[in-house]
């Protein structure tokens, strides 16, 4: 039975092992059973699923995951947490603890070894300092993944799911929406964690698209355009693309492409949808 998701049991474990939180690892452990239930239900876990958990901490969510899934692979960087996990997860025979940095972990091998190469579901209360590299790594490396259900900083969840017209709209929104369908599961206040983070949090589910929502000839070029547009978001799109060190189009080529796409020459990148960026990219590619 899962028994860690309450403050007293967490305190007992921390005291037993004289564990001190490491800020550099983004350690804010969940101590609210309602939030844990919400995450598990939003992740649509079935008894056939193999789950990749990033940063199990003392194993609180890992226990919940192991109760619902066929297998849980938990990757934890902090060596002080490994003996604790071996203790708290001792009663489960469907959990594999991997002591490693998730950014250096070969996740394809995990899918191959533990799930016959079939898609994993990723579930995590993420260390916030590396949210974007983790998510983008999972998408860009083309690892077999069904969905990613994660706790992130509230602002980051907003950036992931927002559309043109919002101040939060940017390169992360476009990248996340290129690869997945975002769904905001719940906002989570600081008092659901120990220690309390000084930012709000949210659970977001990113369901990977089976087929891409846009057709684009050169994905790399499209993302270079997106990066250039939002690196200088106060500038017009034409100027931002012209100033970018990543791109080598002339002013004339950029103006012509904007015109071909039917965009005003003073338009800013923040007004363009994913489809618009794909169209512009294909136009410049010709
Ligand atoms: N899952 C636990 C919970 O909900 O209570 C802990 C979540 S805590 C926000 C983030 C966890 O990620 C910590 O256990 C931390 O040590 C771990 N972590 C931080 N950086 C990591 C990395 N690069 N690779 C793997 N784990 C990491």
Which SSEs are present, and which pair or pack?
Elements: H1 7-16, E1 29-30, H2 33-42, E2 50-54, H3 60-68, E3 71-76, H4 81-88, E4 95-99, H5 107-115, E5 120-125, H6 131-140, E6 145-153, H7 154-161, H8 171-179, E7 180-188, E8 193-194, E9 201-208, H9 219-231, H10 237-243, H11 251-260, H12 274-285
Parallel strand pairs: 2-3, 2-5, 3-4, 5-6
Antiparallel strand pairs: 1-8, 6-9, 7-9
Helix pairs in contact: 6-8, 9-10, 9-12, 10-11
Condensed summary:
The protein is of the alpha/beta class and 286 residues long.
Q: Could you explain the architecture of this structure?
A:
The protein has 286 residues and is an alpha/beta fold. The protein folds into two domains: 7-208, 3-Layer(aba) Sandwich (Rossmann fold), CATH 3.40.50; 219-285, rRNA adenine dimethylase, C-terminal domain (Helicase, Ruva Protein, domain 3), CATH 1.10.8. The chain has twelve helices and nine strands. The protein has helices spanning 7-16, 33-42, 60-68, 81-88, 107-115, 131-140, 154-161, 171-179, 219-231, 237-243, 251-260, 274-285, and strands at residues 29-30, 50-54, 71-76, 95-99, 120-125, 145-153, 180-188, 193-194, 201-208. Strands 4-3-2-5-6-9-7 form a seven-stranded mixed β-sheet, sandwiched between helices. A two-stranded antiparallel sheet has the order 1-8. Strand 3, helix 4 and strand 4 (95-99) form a beta-alpha-beta unit. Helix 10 (237-243) packs antiparallel against helix 11 (251-260). It binds S-adenosylmethionine (SAM). S-adenosylmethionine is lined by residues 25-30, 54-57, 60-61, 75-78, 81, 101-103, 125, 127, 130.
């Amino acid at each position: 039975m899962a028994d860690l998701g309450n403050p007293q049991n967490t305190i007992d474990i921390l005291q037993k092992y004289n564990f001190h939180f490491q800020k550099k690892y983004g350690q804010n452990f969940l101590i609210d059973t309602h939030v844990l239930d919400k995450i598990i239900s939003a992740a649509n876990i079935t008894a056939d699923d193999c789950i990749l958990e990033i940063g199990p901490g003392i194993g609180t969510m890992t226990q919940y995951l192991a109760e619902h899934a066929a297998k849980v692979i938990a990757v934890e960087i902090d060596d002080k947490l490994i003996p604790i996990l071996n203790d708290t997860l001792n009663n489960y025979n469907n959990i594999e603890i991997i002591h490693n940095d998730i950014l250096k972990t070969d996740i394809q091998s995990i899918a191959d070894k533990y799930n016959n190469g079939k898609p994993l579901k990723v579930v995590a209360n993420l260390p916030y300092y590396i949210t974007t590299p983790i998510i983008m790594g999972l998408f860009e490396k083309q690892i077999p993944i069904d969905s990613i259900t994660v706790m992130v900083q509230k602002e980051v969840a907003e950036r992931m799911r927002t559309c043109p017209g919002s101040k939060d709209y940017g390169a992360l929104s476009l990248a996340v929406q290129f690869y997945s369908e975002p769904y905001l599961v719940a906002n989570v206040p600081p008092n659901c964690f120990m220690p309390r983070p000084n930012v709000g949090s949210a659970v977001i589910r990113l369901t990977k698209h089976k087929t891409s929502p846009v057709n684009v000839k050169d994905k790399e070029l499209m993302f270079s355009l997106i990066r250039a547009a939002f690196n200088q978001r106060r500038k017009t799109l034409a100027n931002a693309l012209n100033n970018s060190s990543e791109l080598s189009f002339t002013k004339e080529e950029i103006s012509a492409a904007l015109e071909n796409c039917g965009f005003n020459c003073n338009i800013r990148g923040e007004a363009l949808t994913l489809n618009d960026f794909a169209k512009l990219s294909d136009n410049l590619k010709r």
